[in-house]
Amino acid sequence: MSLTANKEHASGVWVFAEHRRGQFPSVVFELLGAGRRLADDLGEKLFALLLGGVGVGGKAPDLIAGGADTVYLVEDEVLADFTDDPYVDTLESLVTRYHPSVLLFGATANGRSLAPRLAARLQTGLTADCTGLEIDPEKGNLLQVRPAFGGNIMATVICQERRPQMATVRPRVMKRLPPDPGRMGEIIREMVPPGRKKRVDFLDFVAELKETVNIEEADIIVSGGRGMGDPSNFRLLEELAGALGGAVGASRAAVDAGWVPYSYQVGQTGKTVSPQVYFACGISGAVQHLVGMRSSDIIVAINKNPEAPIFQVATYGLVGDVLEIVPALTAEIRRWKGEA
Amino acid sequence: MKVVVCLKQVPDTAEVKIDRATNTLIREGVPSIINPFDRYALEEAVRIKERLGASVTVLSMGPDQVKEALREALSLGADEAILLSDRAFAGADTLATSYSLARGIEKIGGYDLILFGKQAIDGDTGQVGPGVAEVLGLPHITLVRRLVDLREGQVKVERLVEGGWELLATALPAVFTVVKEINEPRVPSIKGMLRAKRAEIPVWRAADLQADPRRTGLAGSPTRVAKIYTPVFDRQAEVLSGTAGEQAQALVARLRENKII
């Protein structure tokens, strides 16, 4: 067991720059934005970790432009597609060599697989799905804020003694910095440690939601529930989402009815989202749905029942027939966009 | 084949209410349930048993009342159930929980496949599955939505990720966490319920696991909850009235004010 260095020797805020074949999800730049702030508060440097196949280093300048001082770059074909073993082995070797104080991951499928395995290997603390990160001005610890109990409570978690302090961070919560291509930074090449095993084989990736934005990445989500009445009415939501450049989501009721696939589901047993605007169309607002979307910046509720709980979390409420209001909205948005 | 399913008893978070006067969780009268995601893991294990022949062991950690959840798992098709319960396990974060469960799984022994739900609905971390895999030195795959090809010693799975799915292969033994999409859990049979009622559920203490006391419970937990508070969601919805067309105009005006469009 490799115990990490004690806190006195730990320095540097590290951000894991996840990607799929060189494409970064937006959470990477959000982590750099948050990491920049934490590093400045600590008076330490911000590092980005870029692991991938040969050639991925071409993307390193984007990370410096996003706020990193240094990029640790590891190019190796074993890292071309994400699998846990070579990524954990490589990160373990970097952490035990350089002793960062903070190590952040996106709370994505890969981040939430890799981070707990690495934390267990390093025997350090890991906080899941954080929505707030601050430095304690007195003790210098990372204050990690996260929802728990289905969003009913917020908890501030600390990892007092062990380093690095690890967290996965919910996408679309932290603010990215405006990219600065003139920013100076250095790129340091590192290696995959030799003699380790890779036990999971990556065979294929199949994109499922072609030509639509996926809901974890969308700035605008248009979701439908049982109040849409019929699966064919989801076409109205697709049109509204299309006019806004957003994605279509759904409540559990719509998924359970077989109207749309599970990948659309927002809520406790689906996805947690926090877009700029969330449209809840014909969704009454069961707690299980609310916990998955109520941290959205703006919530628009459209429902025929003025007593529906969805209105308690909404910014704007439109009471009426969703099948009339949604097409009217689409037309109004198209009209305004056409004029602009 | 031997399948171990780890399951957690959780409060039904949809029933948790906030006491607005004291700003605390009201847990009285809130039912304890099997973590909904773990039901999919259990169902998948029982389906493997029915298809290929396997034994299914369920393992949990917690106070004595967790036996209720384990009995329910037995009624749903598990062959045996084991509870890890000791004051030494109390106050565990995900690291210490991973260690204790892994020691329990080592004591069970002979496993080919270890299944978890993708996360528990109270903590929502999803960290214990990968943590257990690391302690046991096994490969893991999270967010499994389908076992494509399961045979002696190897398996191919589909993994749900952002924007699609991956096809992955690994050797057994391995640890998987599963998503809801993987199956439709069954309801208990009468026969299963009768069997579960009579079943003996062994309780293993820290000493039975020869667990390192520095790695269990509060002592083995690097993280602490420093503060808990209840978020305030007192948005007063602005109601936009009128005909559908008028409501649409009013909303688009608001979205423009907010620079959304």
Average pLDDT value of chain A? 93
Q: In the CATH scheme, what's the topology name of the largest domain in chain A?
A: Rossmann fold
Rg for CA atoms of chain B: 22 Å
The CATH class of the largest domain in chain A is identified as Alpha Beta
Q: Provide the domain count of chain B.
A: 1
> What is the share of helical residues of chain A?
25-40%
What is the overall silhouette of chain A?
Answer: elongated
Quick synopsis:
The complex is a heterodimer of chains A (340) and B (261). By secondary structure, chain A is α/β, with parallel strands linked by helices.
Protein architecture, described:
The complex is a heterodimer of chains A (340) and B (261). Chain A has 2 domains: 7-190, Rossmann fold; 220-336, Rossmann fold (3-Layer(aba) Sandwich). In chain A, the strands form 3 sheets. Chain A has a 7-stranded parallel beta sheet, sandwiched between helices. Chain A contains 8 helices and 16 strands. Chain A is of the alpha/beta class and 340 residues long. Chain A has helices at residues 26-42, 60-65, 84-98, 111-122, 234-244, 252-256, 287-290, 322-339, and strands at residues 13-16, 46-52, 70-75, 102-106, 126-130, 132-135, 142-148, 153-159, 165-169, 186-189, 200-207, 220-224, 247-250, 277-281, 298-303, 316-319. The N and C termini of chain A lie far apart (61 Å). Chain A is 26% helix and 25% strand. In chain A, helix 3 packs across helix 4 (111-122) and helix 5 (234-244) packs parallel to helix 8. The mean pLDDT of chain A is 93. Chain B has 261 residues and is of the alpha/beta class. Chain B has a single domain, classed as 3-Layer(aba) Sandwich (Rossmann fold), CATH 3.40.50. Chain B is built from 6 helices and 15 strands. Chain B has a 9-stranded mixed beta sheet with strand order 11-10-9-12-8-1-6-7-13, sandwiched between helices. In chain B, strands 2-5 form a two-stranded antiparallel ribbon. A two-stranded antiparallel ribbon of chain B has the order 3-4. The longest helix of chain B has 17 residues, at 36-52. Chain B is globular. Chain B starts with a strand and ends with a helix. Chains A and B meet through helix 3, helix 4, strand 5, strand 7 and strand 8 of A and helix 3, helix 4, strand 9, strand 10 and strand 11 of B.
